[in-house]
Amino acid sequence: MLNQNMKVAFNLAARLLRQELKRGELTIILAALVLAVSSVFSLSLFSERLQGALKEKSGEFLAADSVLSASREINPEWIEQADAMSLDYSQQTRFSSMLFVNDKMQLASIRAVDQAYPLKGELKLTQVAWDAGATTAERVEPGEIWLDSKLISQLGVKPGAMIEVGDTQLKFAHIIASVPDTDFNVFNAGGLALIHLDDLAKTGVIQPGSRVSYQLNLAGDSSDLADFEDWVTPLLNRDIHRFNSTDDSNSRILRSVRRAEKYFLLASLLGIVLASTAIAVAASRFCERHFDLVAILKTLGANQIQIRWVFVFQLSLISITGIGLGLALGYFAQLVIIQALQSYLPEYIPNAGLRPWWLAFTTGLMSVLLFSVYPLLKLFSIPPLRVLHRQMQGLENKDWLNWIFSGGAIFGLMWLYSGNIELSLALLASAGLVILVLLVIARSAIWGSRKAGANAGSATKLALAGLYRRASENSIQLISFTIAIELLLIVLVLRNDLLAEWQSQLPEGTPNYFAINVNQHQIDTFIQSFNDKGIEIEDAYPVTRGRMVAINDEYVRDDVSKERREDRDRDGPRSFGRELNLTAYAEFPEDNTLVAGSWWQQNDKSYQVSIEEGVSERMNLKLGDKLTFNIAGSEFSAEVTSIRKVVWESMKPNFFMIFNPVVLENFPSNYITSFYVPEQVKPELHTIMSQFPSATLIDIDAIIDQIRQITNQVSLAVEFILILVVVAGSLVLIAQVQASLDERRQELVILRTLGAKSSLLRNSVSLEFMILGALAGLFAAVANEIALYILQTQVFNMPAKFHWQFWFIGPITGAVVIGLLGLASCWKLIKVNTQALIRALS
Questions:
Q1: Which residues share a beta bridge with 136?
Q2: How is 414-471 classified by DSSP, letter by letter?
Q3: Tell me: the pLDDT tens digits for 780-823?
Q4: What pLDDT score does 330 carry?
Q5: What pTM does this model have?
Q6: Cα 146 off chain centre by
Q7: Cα-based distances in Å from 555 to 545, 564, 571
Q8: If we measure between CA atoms, which residue out of 561, 613, 615, 571 comes closest to residue 592?
């Protein structure tokens, strides 16, 4: 019996589907599903591939995907485990030692590397010191030593010379222009030298108590890297080991990538909401179109099972077709975008995993199922008496079920896509509150139109009367329009703000060189020498190493073991756990922002200190606190008189602690500064730096170029995502406009029968949709400000801004766009004669 019912239902469903395809009845729901799946699929596929490419590019800053560093030799079993997990690895040992050649000697930062180094990024060599150099495929061979430009200047050697390192001599083979994992510790004392790992034991410089850093660089598949990290993490001693990767939250270099990922997540969630709204509208309209059919089938004796199977089969066929077309279209779209932007994107763009595929499929399936539940239940409960009384409907006064199913569907999709239940719940709750408030405002605005229309002209009166007559439907439409416009505004504004902030971080003229370890008695000559070459040095900071030892006369504690660190009951505030780079400066730093307190006067003799905002928050420091420091065995105290916000990405010297000049005037110091060197002046650097053998010049052009590349690539991704969200939002607007066409057709029949002219109908329809659009744009602008304040301050850590222009753009754009959409959708109905309208209605 069941098989017979299914067979009959399937045949009927197939015939109905063919007829409706001929009449174009399924255009809206099919287009909604195709666009929902294709937008989600192309968005997730493109963003996952782009993020993979950006992480690949970001790995060049580490010369690997992940780095395990340690103050003791790394356990050989861990290296064997990495090899067993099919990971590429490279070992490295870092230390400082003296280099001797002829009658000269110089302290150098030496790296003993193997021939697998670097796993990511490129080595650059040069023939002339301080030149930009060119990429090389050569690697350090046993018996060789490579030196950077600083050491060349200090030692005065040429390639081929024998350099003494500890107990062995190595042949100077090449001049290093740059390495991918540049040590961005601007207080590092020595120039860079590379030797082969096999020569390390021969030097004999590593002795018990030596200050040495060991590294295991890893590269490979992300899942294999994650498995290794999970395996090795429980074995690490946090006092000895440190595991870094391209996802390291402490890496300042990757802030642009992580902020872009947040934008991808937010845009994806908003895109899903828009696509799901379009599917909900289309599914509801699809079922409403079949109310009469179900009533007729029941009158003719069809049982409930047959009727259910008829529409289950139809929706299944629509779902399979829509999801299939959406996957194909989405895959093709991201290929076209990547191909079109190939010259701007990273050279290597990895393939995405299975996540975008099952995510898009699940999105389409959940959207169709959950957003169709209530319309289908309403459809199946249509009474046979509707044949005689067309106003009869099923599930009377059960609209709350629709909100439950729709809300559950949106929450499920948000959770599925974000993987963050807290974020999904917060968004759902805030969206529900906004919808509730908008519903009240929308009803009030529409009901108020009745009084406003009493004294209006005929077209305006007819438009306002239509708004009032369809108050419930128009309220829902107004909410949909508002949400669509609001989400589009959020994505647009965040895109503009993010791009503006990224571009402002590294403007033209950003310092591309750091000079460190400039002797105190040479700083004036140093600055003048650069000024003579047209290189302007604005600020130079004295640097002294010291440790903070007490807060308000209470000695701070250092974490020296894992067990002690986990003991939360110990007394005493926590320290930094290391020495700090302390400076004194009379003027307030240009790129800093004063958060609290006041800057000192030029001649203040009392000991004062200004602290960075993050330090203040982490260590619970406040204005008036007394901080005690120890420099080379001498202790002194200073009062916290100001708190600063520091722009760490400025490529200028920045400090946690800045004192007024009187505090450090009796302590020896070296100077640090940063400046911009034009490309044509770089050949002069060798001549300048030869006068200051103790100073170190650090070229950060490569870092700046890579950050700019990442920013540009992320910007292109943001543009693409904006387009997808705009398309999804447009679909919501079209679906909502189309949803009211049946009722408008009935009205037009009556009005045309009563002699209304086409111009009157056209003007009234345009005005009705323009009023809806203007109200939606105004409500969206208000909601947009609230949402942006939360997102900018809580999610993106950006300063909140008031976007006054969108209070004008929103209503005007809403009125024009929705007015045109409404007029275009109703154009055929307005132009068709009365007789044709009556035939279509019947």
A1: 123
A2: HHHHH--HHHHHHHHHHHHHHHHHHHHHHHHHHHHHHHHGGGS-HHHHHHHHHHHHTH
A3: 888 888 777 777 776 666 677 788 888 888 888 888 888 887 77
A4: 85
A5: 0.61
A6: 39
A7: 19, 16, 10
A8: 613
